[in-house]
Amino acid sequence: MGQNTVIVVLGASGNLAAKKLGQHRRGLLSDKLKIVGFDLTRMSDDDFIKHIKSCVDQSSPELEDHLKAFCERCSYITINQDAGDESFVDLRKRMESFIEGDETQNRHFYMALPPNIYVAVSEQLRRNCYAEKGDSQIIIEKPFGHDLESSVELHKKLEPNWKESEIFRVDHYLGKEMVKNIMTLRFGNPMFGAIWDCNHIDNIQISMTENIGTEGRGGYFDDVGIIRDVMQNHLMQLLALTTMERPGSFSAEDLRQEKARVLRLVPPLETKHTLTGQYIKSPDGKHPGYKDDDDVPKDSRCATFCTSVAYVRNGRWEGVPFILKSGKALNESKTEIRIQLKDTTDAMLKDTKHNQLIIRIQPDEAVRLKMNAKMPGYELRTIETELDLLYQQTVENPDIPEAYEALLLDAFDRDYSESVSEQELEASWKIFTPLLHELEGHKDIKPAEYAYGSQGPDGLEDFVASYQLQK
After folding, report:
1. Tell me: the pLDDT tens digits for 38-66?
2. Residues labelled catalytic
3. Are 37 and 69 in contact (CB under 8 A)?
4. pLDDT tens digit string along 116-162?
5. Class of residue 256 by CB neighbours under 10 A (exposed 0-12, middle 13-18, buried 19+)
């Protein structure tokens, strides 16, 4: 960030926005950087700084020093909702006050706002705050639409004012350290590249589970559901990184093209390959069920759990099932990619287990390889062993950045390799929209109940096993 740069946080009074912003203080200490909070909540500059400090970690003198230097670059503008463009004109004047004469200034607008006002706010920004000399960029977060049609419509409405190269779409999973490691693991180790196909792999499980429920967000979640909240975005990005061909380079253009290309090869998901669920209260009664939330309709059919099987129609992955699973109020919080290889022949060795490569995204970032070895002793017997790369044990004092810290620094540097492209969005919505419409359009399709804290609905184990090699 060597140039004059302004980061405007729209929706800055929210705790989440302040926390995300505060996470980036280590990388945002350029003398030419300014941060402006912009929101309806009436606050002074000092109030805004106190708000940021209340939301971020100050557990060490170093972090405290970083935060102090960071806050010196922060100011705030209260939006007058009844004054039309007036507040946006004030914002432009504030940004202009940071430079002298005709100096170049880059402007980044981080929209920590409800998606239904993205278009209206982006129009006001383009009309009043677009940089005449320098780059301008809007940064938006999911959901990017409700289905394929609404996603395409959102893009069309943004497109007249903002080019694709000026829109950074945040999927925070792309900022996670182990997600970034997938490409290094695949393309930096020939032993994995040699087996990365349908000749050696039986199935791949991609899962993201949480041990908490909607926790007061039931009213919002009921309009979204687990498929839109997690599977259409986070799990599709993990699927794309796992299955794409090697890009020509790791540039944003090449990387995003390969991800979009492989997602286009995934046919729409079908209900016959899908199991949905909705959690009820825990057996001990300590945790309420989904419909116990006052904001959730008592007849809600919203899925809080879903597992579905996808296929990639190309030579590399022909016939390999990709078992996608996500859910709330389960027995554990975990995100991982589990690659199960085909078995060896039993001609020489008996009782061997299938090899598995496990990429643990969170918690406790790790790569594990399950393999067969000889049991110590006189007889030729096999046991399953595990090679384990646990980041916290292998790398001394690993400095693993927060996902949002990594992503927003990329956005501010205009590195779009971890921004979701419009082509990726369209391809992923084509995979899920028919399934969503069928599940929501047929009242006779109801999610199976499962207890809070359980592994999921009855029949889940048999459902998953039907797509796996059994041994």
Report:
1. 988 898 988 888 888 777 765 666 667 77
2. 234
3. no
4. 889 999 999 999 999 989 999 999 988 899 999 999 999 999 988 99
5. buried
